[in-house]
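Ops channel
N.P.: pipeline sanity check, posting one input/output pair.
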C-alpha cells in the first residue's frame, strides 16, 4: 500500500479547523483534523510533508512520524509544524485501522475502560450560550448539565479581569466576582459536579497564587494554566503555594516539553491536545510518561468531530485517563454536518465504535458542498480550488 495524494479541506463557517485526507493506491482514505490557523498548517503539509509521504506505506505510522519530526525540528518544530504532523498522524492511524479491519483503540492495545468520562467546557456556539450562562447563571447551568448526566464543567470567570493590568494584579472586588461564580455552582449543586477553573495563562505568579488560594474552599477538580507554562520553577512555586490541583498544559508540544514538567513535579494533572502535540502517536507516549510519574492525563479536546473520535480511541485505551474535554455546543450542533457517523455521548460518557479506523469519514453531503476550499498534492504537483468554481490554480 502506498500514499498517492494528500488533501486538505477548509469550510467557511469553521475557519479555525482543517480536515486532512490521505489517499492510497488501494482505495483507503485516512481522515485527520487539526486547528487553529489552518492556512499556515496547510503550507507545512503541502510544501514540506506531502513530498516526503507520497509513495510511502501509510501503515508505517511510527517511522513516518519520526521522519516528519526530524525534517521539521531543524528550524524549530512547535506550532504549525506540529499541528501538521498531528493531523497527518490521525489520518495514518485511520488508514492502519481500516487496513486491518480494526478500530484504532484495538491497535493501541485494546480497552482499559468501556467508556470515557467527559466534562463540558462551557463555550457558546449556535443555540447554546454556555459561556454567557456560566457568568450570568452558573448554578442553573450546572443543574442543566447534571440533568444530562454531565458531572464536570470548566469555566473561566477571572479572565476578563486580567485585561486592564495585563495579568499583573487583580483587585479584591474582581477576585470576589470571579470566586462568586464558583460559589454559586457549589451552592446550587453541592459537590455533585466537578468544577475545573481555566485561566488561559493570563496571570503572573503572585496573582495566580492569590486566585488559587481564594478558590480552595470550593474543592476544584483543577486550576488550569493559571500562569503560562514557560517557567517550571514558577509552576512549582504555584503548586506548592496552594492545595488546588494544577493542570498543565495544552500549550506544550511533544513528550520532550512534558517530561521536565513531570520530572520537576510541577503539575498534578497533565492536559495535552492530540491535534497540537503530535497526534495519537505522541499523546500515547506522553500518557505513558505521565503514568510513570503517577499522574493522570485529561486530553484537551475543543475542536471538531475527528479530534473527538481520535481522542476517544486513545482514551478508552490509556489507563491513566482522568477525563476528556468536550464541548456540548459543538457536538450537539455542527458535528453531524461534517462526518458520516458522529461521536456517541450518553449520560456523561463518550463511547467509541468497533468500526475500522476512526469509524467515520467526511459525509457525502459535506464533500458535495460548493464552498469548500481544497488543496491536493499528488506527486510533485499541488492544486488549489474552491468547490464548484471553474478555475484551478496550480502551484508547486
Amino acid at each position: 500500500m502506498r500514499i498517492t495524494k494528500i488533501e486538505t479541506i477548509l469550510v467557511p463557517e469553521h475557519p479555525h479547523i482543517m480536515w486532512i485526507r490521505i489517499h492510497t493506491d488501494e482505495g483507503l482514505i485516512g481522515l485527520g483534523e487539526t486547528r487553529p490557523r489552518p492556512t499556515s498548517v496547510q503550507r507545512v503539509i503541502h510544501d514540506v510533508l506531502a513530498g516526503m509521504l507520497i509513495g510511502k506505506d501509510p501503515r508505517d505510522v511510527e517511522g513516518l512520524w519520526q521522519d516528519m519530526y526530524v525534517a521539521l525540528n531543524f528550524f524549530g518544530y512547535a506550532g504549525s509544524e506540529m499541528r501538521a504532523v498531528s493531523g497527518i498522524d490521525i489520518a495514518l492511524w485511520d488508514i492502519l485501522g481500516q487496513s486491518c479491519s480494526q478500530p484504532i483503540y484495538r491497535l493501541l492495545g485494546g480497552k482499559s475502560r468501556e467508556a470515557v468520562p467527559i466534562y463540558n467546557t462551557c463555550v457558546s456556539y449556535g443555540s447554546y450560550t454556555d459561556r454567557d450562562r456560566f457568568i450570568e447563571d452558573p448554578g442553573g447551568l450546572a443543574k442543566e448539565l447534571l440533568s444530562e448526566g454531565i458531572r464536570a464543567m470548566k469555566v473561566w470567570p477571572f479572565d476578563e479581569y486580567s485585561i486592564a493590568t495585563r495579568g499583573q494584579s487583580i483587585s479584591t472586588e474582581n477576585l470576589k466576582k470571579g470566586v462568586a461564580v464558583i460559589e454559586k455552582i457549589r451552592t446550587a449543586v453541592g459537590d455533585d459536579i466537578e468544577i475545573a477553573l481555566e485561566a488561559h495563562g493570563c496571570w503572573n505568579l503572585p496573582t495566580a497564587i492569590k486566585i488559587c488560594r481564594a478558590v480552595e474552599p470550593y474543592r476544584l477538580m483543577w486550576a488550569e494554566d493559571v500562569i503560562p507554562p514557560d517557567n517550571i520553577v514558577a509552576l512549582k512555586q504555584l503548586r506548592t503555594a496552594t492545595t488546588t490541583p494544577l493542570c498543565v498544559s495544552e500549550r506544550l508540544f511533544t513528550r520532550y516539553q512534558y517530561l521536565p514538567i513531570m520530572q520537576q513535579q510541577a503539575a498534578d494533572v497533565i492536559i495535552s491536545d492530540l491535534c497540537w502535540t503530535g497526534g495519537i502517536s505522541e499523546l500515547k507516549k506522553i500518557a505513558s510518561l505521565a503514568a510513570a510519574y503517577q499522574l493522570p492525563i485529561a486530553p484537551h479536546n475543543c475542536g471538531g468531530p475527528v479530534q473527538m473520535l481520535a481522542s476517544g480511541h486513545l482514551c478508552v485505551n490509556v489507563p491513566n485517563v482522568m477525563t476528556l474535554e468536550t464541548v456540548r455546543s459543538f457536538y450537539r450542533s455542527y458535528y453531524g454536518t461534517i462526518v458520516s457517523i458522529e461521536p456517541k455521548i450518553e449520560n456523561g460518557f463518550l463511547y467509541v465504535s468497533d468500526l475500522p479506523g476512526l469509524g467515520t469519514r467526511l459525509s457525502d453531503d459535506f464533500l458535495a458542498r460548493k464552498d469548500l476550499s481544497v488543496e491536493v498534492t499528488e506527486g510533485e504537483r499541488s492544486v488549489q480550488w474552491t468547490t464548484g468554481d471553474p478555475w484551478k490554480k496550480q502551484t508547486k
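N.P.: looks fine end to end. The chain has two domains: 3-101+363-395, 106-351.
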